[in-house]
């Protein structure tokens, strides 16, 4: 079989929510502290305590939404410890992540400043596991209420006159695990209760996200939808790509075998089955697809880099990660009728990061470049398309060689993202364009000839986006030849 893509350019299938390109930043390792927050007195150039190099790099990605403060940290976080004069803020132990001291210098005000500087919408995750209803309710009041109240007065005393605009609010995180080890029935009741007091103040309308399932825990989704669907706007799902065993060894981020290469990609593609199966359950209770599936943690999870704190989840990032990112984002785009948001874990220095830092230095990872390339899909119209792909076979494993998604941007141009997951062979994709006339075509690509290719502090530009022109017109469509291990975006202007 050869690989063939049919694009029906005059049939749209709804909008690709830009929030699919969302991010997640937790108080974990060097994710917030060092990676984003260095403090106003730091020798690292910063804006209001946030390092400028990271800010500039992230701004270029047009991050639509940023989830914070966790993760597991969220269900141990007490927001009141993180407001007021910084030197007076309570110091606590970050028990989940390395047992280090959390000085609470990055709190609510600093997070909103970060979002403002990035132009990203905030997505706050509240504490159900160890927090009270009152605490959650008062946090929302502190952030969004404009009238006379103790929380408004306190916010103003702390330097912020106007309330902030907050849309996305998560009611707990992984409440089946680190967020309280609850059964779905119990969490569903708690969700109903907590969300009652998460109020809409003035014209600030919250989009409430219930803590969802881990991987293939379909019972969790069933119970949550049955018991609480009318009270939620979104239900989350967490899925990490791990080529090994979570407890016995996940595998190295850079030193991996061919078997691990294949297992990684095969497991990354598994998210499509999860979306479809959780989505089918959601359809039963919500056939109009009002409730969004919010994949608010996804990405690769490998063993930490040798010599680093095991609780800090610091890992390098290669072209393999780029392919996981590209193929996952294609899947989210192709299921945009249900997937309303996704947040890759995590932005800086943690898991599948966009950026790695070391002291003053900063590098962009291959995953960063995929998010950069794929920006064209944000809020674009998904176009009808059909892919028939060759398969990669490795032992018992089989999976498609090529992954694609197609959209029409606000600029009217057609954007096609392709991943060639084969690490040894190029692949030719016969691309048929129906319902449009081919005009100018241009392309960009991220690729390498080494399957562990990465950027390092010594060689920060080994994996970079370059122009791509390996395509030719064919019967009104295109013959596109994708190098091995590549993520490509073609832009087609109609003629
Ligand atoms: O992203 C790291 C951790 O993974 C998060 O804190 C938790 O929600 C998940 O288990």
From TrEMBL:
Biochemical pathway: Glycan metabolism
Keyword Iron-sulfur: no
UniProt xrefs under InterPro entries: Alpha-L-AF_C, ASD1_cat, GH, Glyco_hydro_b
Top enzyme class: hydrolase
Pfam family, one: Alpha-L-AF_C
EC number per UniProt: 3.2.1.55
Keywords: Carbohydrate metabolism, Glycosidase, Hydrolase
Domain Alpha-L-arabinofuranosidase C-terminal span(s) in chain numbering: 296-486
Catalysis performed (reactions): Hydrolysis of terminal non-reducing alpha-L-arabinofuranoside residues in alpha-L-arabinosides
Leader peptide range in chain numbering: none
Family designation: Belongs to the glycosyl hydrolase 51 family.
Subunit (UniProt): Homohexamer; trimer of dimers.
Stored PANTHER family: ALPHA-L-ARABINOFURANOSIDASE C-RELATED (PTHR43576), INTRACELLULAR EXO-ALPHA-L-ARABINOFURANOSIDASE 2 (PTHR43576:SF2)
Record protein name field: non-reducing end alpha-L-arabinofuranosidase
């Amino acid at each position: 079989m050869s690989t063939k893509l049919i694009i029906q350019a005059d049939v749209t299938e709804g909008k690709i929510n830009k929030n699919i390109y969302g991010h997640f930043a937790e108080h974990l390792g060097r994710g917030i502290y060092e990676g984003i927050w260095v403090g106003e007195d730091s020798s690292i150039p910063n804006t209001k305590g946030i390092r400028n190099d990271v800010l500039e790099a992230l701004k270029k990605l047009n991050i639509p939404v940023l989830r914070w403060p966790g993760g597991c940290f969220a269900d141990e976080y007490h927001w009141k410890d993180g407001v007021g004069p910084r030197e007076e803020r309570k110091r606590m132990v970050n028990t989940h992540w390395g047992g280090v001291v959390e000085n609470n210098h990055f709190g609510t005000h600093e997070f909103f400043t970060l979002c403002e500087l990035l132009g990203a919408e905030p997505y706050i995750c509240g504490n159900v596991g160890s927090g009270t209803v009152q605490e959650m309710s008062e946090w929302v009041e502190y952030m969004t209420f404009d009238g006379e109240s103790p929380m408004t007065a306190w916010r103003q005393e702390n330097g912020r006159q106007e309330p902030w605009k907050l849309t996305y609010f998560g009611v707990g995180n992984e409440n089946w695990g680190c967020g309280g080890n609850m059964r779905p029935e119990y969490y569903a009741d708690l969700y109903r209760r907590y969300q009652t007091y998460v109020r809409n103040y003035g014209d600030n309308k919250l989009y409430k996200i219930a803590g969802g399932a881990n991987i293939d825990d379909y019972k969790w989704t069933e119970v949550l939808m049955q018991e609480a669907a009318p009270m939620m706007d979104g239900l989350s799902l967490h899925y990490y790509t791990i080529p090994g065993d979570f407890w016995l060894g996940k595998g190295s981020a850079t030193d991996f075998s061919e078997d691990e290469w294949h297992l990684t990609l095969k497991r990354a593609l598994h998210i499509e089955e999860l979306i479809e199966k959780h989505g089918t359950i959601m359809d039963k209770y919500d056939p109009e697809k009002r409730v969004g599936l919010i994949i608010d943690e996804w990405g690769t999870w490998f063993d930490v880099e040798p010599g680093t704190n095991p609780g800090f989840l610091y890992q390098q990032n290669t072209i393999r990660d780029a392919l996981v990112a590209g193929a996952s984002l294609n899947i989210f785009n192709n299921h945009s009728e249900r997937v309303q948001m996704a947040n890759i874990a995590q932005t800086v220095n943690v898991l599948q990061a966009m950026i790695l830092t070391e002291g003053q230095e900063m590098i962009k990872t291959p995953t960063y470049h995929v998010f950069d390339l794929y920006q064209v899909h944000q809020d674009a119209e998904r176009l009808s398309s059909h892919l028939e792909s060759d398969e990669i076979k490795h032992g018992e494993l089989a999976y498609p060689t090529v992954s694609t998604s197609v959209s029409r941007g606000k600029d009217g141009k057609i954007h096609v993202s392709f991943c060639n997951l084969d690490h040894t062979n190029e692949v030719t994709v016969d691309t048929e364009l129906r319902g449009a006339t081919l005009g100018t075509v241009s392309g960009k690509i991220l690729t390498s000839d080494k399957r562990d290719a990465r950027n390092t502090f010594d060689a920060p530009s080994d994996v970079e986006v370059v122009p791509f022109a390996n395509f030719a017109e064919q019967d009104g469509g295109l013959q596109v030849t994708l190098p091995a291990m590549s993520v490509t975006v073609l832009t087609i202007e109609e003629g």
